[in-house]
Amino acid sequence: MSTPLSQAEQFKALVQWLGEAIRPPEQFTLGYDAEASEFIRFNKGKVRQAGLVQQASLSLKLINDGRHADVSLTLAGELDVDCQRLADALQQLRDTLPMLPADPYLLLNPQPWHSDNVQGRPLPDTARVLEEIRSACEGVDLVGFYASGPISYGYASSEGAFGWHQANSFNFDWSLFHSNGQAVKASYAGADWDSERFARRMQLAREQLSFLDRPLHALAPGEYRAYLAPAALEEVMSMLCWGGFSAQALASKSSPLQKLYAGDAQLSPLVSFDEQVSQSLSPAFSGEGYPRQDLSLVKHGKANQQLVGSRSAAEYGLQVNGAPWGEAPSALAMAAGTLEQADILKQLGTGLYISNLWYLNYSDQPAARLTGMTRFATFWVENGEIKAPVNTMRFDDSVYSLLGSQLEALTVERELLLSSSTYDQRQTASNLLPGALVKKLTLTL
C-alpha cells in the first residue's frame, strides 16, 4: 500500500497537473486553504460538544488576454478525484472567459518566488487542556469554545511562484457567568500552551467575577479616566483596520485615518503599529501572489507605510507590498509601553476599568470618531481599588483623543488575540495589543 500524500505533496501534485493542462497564452493562479481542527464547546464548566473538522479547498483563477475568472472547489483528498474536479473547473473557466471584458487593474506578479514555512510546534495535549480548564473553573459557571489544530495555505502560479504555509494554533474563548446574569469574558490563544499564563488569565477572570456581586454603580454621562484592556482596545483597532491603512481607501479619501496619513492629525508618540508578518501565524505571501513583508504602519504617532494590494498598485501607480485582500492588517502588533500589570489600578486611580467593548461603529468616520457600548466586567475604580460593576454605557470619542492627546500609558504586557472566526474555516489573523490608560473617555448615555 502506498504512503498517503501530505497536504503539501497533494498541492504540489495538483499544481504540476495544472501546469501541464494550461494552454499558452493562458495563465493561472492557484490558492489552497485547509484545516484539521478540533472543536470543544463548554457549558457550566463541562464539555457539551466535541468534534473534528478536516477540509481543504482550491481557488483557481484563469487569465487570458487580460480577462480572468475564478472558481472555488472542495477537495476530496484523493489525487485522481481532485485532478478531475480541477479539470472540470478549468473547463468551466475556459467557457466563461470569452464573455468577460478585460480587467484594466489586473496586475499579476511576473516574478517566480518560493516560500515554505511550517510552524509545526506540537499543539497542547487535549486531555491536559481539558483537565486544566476543569480545575481552573471549578465552582463557577463557564461557557466557552476551544479550537485547536493546523491551518494550511498554499499558492502557485504559472509564472513559477510557489508558497506553502502551515501554522499550528489554539484559541480558547470563554465567559464566566454570575448568577445575576452578568459575566466576565476572557480568552487565551497562541501556538504554545503555557499552563501558568493560562492560570493567571483565569484567576484574573475569577477575581473580576467576584466583584459582580456588588450593586451596580450608576454613572452620569461625562468624561472619565479609563483603562482599556487589550480585548477592549482590539474592538477599537478592528474599526481602524476597516480601511484605515488601506491604499485604496486612502486614495479614494474614504479612510478613517485620512487625516493621519495627510499629516493633518497625529496620535500619541507612544503609539506605533506594525504589520508584523514574520512573527505571526499568517502566511508570508498574499492570496494575490505577492511575498509579504513586515511594515511600519504608524511610527511614534505619525503615519508611515500603507497596505498596498495589486489592484491599488495598478490603479494608483503604487508599489505592491503583499497586502491581503481588503488591505486590512492580518498580523497587527502595537508597541508595548511601560505600565506594569500590577500598577494598572493604582495608576488609574479613580475611573473606569473596561474589559470589553462592543457594537462599535463610526459616529464621524472622517474624524475617526467611534461610538459603542461597554460590555462584560466594566468596573468603577476609586483610589486604585475596584468598587463596583458599572451599568452598560455608551461612549463616543475620537481615536485622535483615545490614542492621541488623552493617552497616558500603555502596558508592558501585550496580549495575543487570535481571530475566533470559524466562517468557512478557522483563521490565522491576529492582534498583539497592550492595554491603554487614557485620561479622558467620553460617555454619552
Automatic annotation (TrEMBL):
Biological process per Gene Ontology, one example term: proteolysis
MF GO annotations: metallopeptidase activity
Limits of the Metalloprotease TldD/E C-terminal domain: 221-443
Pfam families: PmbA_TldD_3rd
Keywords (A to Z) from UniProt: Hydrolase, Protease
SUPFAM superfamilies, per database record: Putative modulator of DNA gyrase, PmbA/TldD (SSF111283)
InterPro entries linked to this entry: Metalloprtase-TldD/E_C, TldD/PmbA_sf
Annotated protein name in UniProt: Predicted Zn-dependent protease or its inactivated homolog
Native species: Pseudomonas deceptionensis
Record lineage: Bacteria, Pseudomonadati, Pseudomonadota, Gammaproteobacteria, Pseudomonadales
